[in-house]
Amino acid sequence: MTTADITDFKAAIEPRKFVRLEYLTDLHEFIKTDALVVSLNTQNGTETLVLADGQQIPLDRVISIAGRLSPLYPGYTNYSCDC
Questions:
Q1: Which of 42, 48, 51, 63 could form a cystine bridge with 35, CB 3.0-4.6 A?
Q2: What's 3-69's CATH class?
Q3: What are the contacts of 51-59 at 24+ separation with CB within 8 A?
Q4: pLDDT > 70? residue 1
């Protein structure tokens, strides 16, 4: 994983766009949802994805957004299922 990989992933995040989002909770539960992205903010040194429903998800817990896999989770698509 390179800095360019992370930069490309962040560039794919478009505010005010409705996307399919896959992420892990604090308890490492896998969540798949459709959500409206409001912004990408930095809070206390952590980049956070802000959703229209008020949720704030740390970017390092986002597995994929709009079909784009995070470079922090290489190979994760092998375990995901659109069942």
A1: 51
A2: mainly beta
A3: 51/21, 57/21, 57/23, 59/10
A4: no
